[in-house]
Amino acid sequence: MLNQELWRVTIDTNPEDCNLKCIMCEEHSPYSNFIENLYQETGVKRRRMPFDWVVDIFKQAHELGVKEIIPSTMGEPLLYKGFEQIFDLSAQYGIKINLTTNGTFPKKPVAVWAKIIVPHTTDVKISWNAATKETAEAVMEKIDFEQCVENVKAFVKVRDAHYQETGYFCRVTFQLTFMQNNMHELADIIKLAAKLGVDRVKGHQLWDHFDEIKDLSFRKNAKSIAQWNEYVEEAYLARDTYLKPNGENVLLENIIPLKYSESKEVPTAYVCPFLKQELWISATGTISPCCAPDQLRQSLGDFGNIETSSIGDVLESANYQNLVDNYKNIELCKSCTMRKPS
Questions:
Q1: What global pTM score does this model have?
Q2: Do residue 222 and residue 285 come from a single domain?
Q3: pLDDT at 39
Q4: Which of 41, 230, 299, 313 to pair with 218, CA 20 to 30 A apart?
Q5: 313 lies in the same domain as 191
């Protein structure tokens, strides 16, 4: 029987297109040789999903009752040629967009982007890793922090006007990566979010792709775990202290204490938030069950390619069902930073 729990699909439209070099990024970090190796191995400098695939994925998603599509969490999706057409598909098939962007809003004025994005989008997650210019520009190389603050103000202004006119609400989120070189500003990030009218602050623990950033993980040892847990306490105090202009609290998500055992494995009781609920489709069509780093998630098995397999085929496949039943025994999943309490 076809799985009817699937509610969201992520499509990596243009993972190599980005105007920043965030230190923790699998592909664009100054410590990464991913793009160089991609070219050496394939002769391709930039993978970009053909738009006819995007159309077909929307069609399949509609037939399966999918509620949201995320257009790329790698690279900057707003750099994808013809990105505006994705919102036309959203309207055509009744599937909302959930957008992750780095906050630079390239190629168009922010207000123009906002008027295109807001009516069709449930959530705009803006990559945000600091409360100060110095920290932000050390983590997200090439970013203009002060300009990004102004961009958020402009975006929220359009969002609020649209809500007042139509009653439709598009949530705005700060999306964080929890690291030892930026989370000393976590409480101040929440304070800034409240001031700007940002609705939610969420994030995840670091995937330490490179040796150069391994020491930034809070899961490194007992001392770093204790430090993170202190920041969590400060975060909830900030949430209760600083309110949005409408008087509401900023919603905090995934900002939870770490257990001391998590320096080795996550607790067995923690569950995968993706299996049976979400799928990822790469720019080359590879279908994946989660957002683990590309090289790591290959260890989970082969789930086909959108050129030759449908989304429904994947959900019904033996490989996928085996993963659903046994993921807690798989090495990658045992240490996955995305698993959380049920």
A1: 0.90
A2: no
A3: 66
A4: 299
A5: no
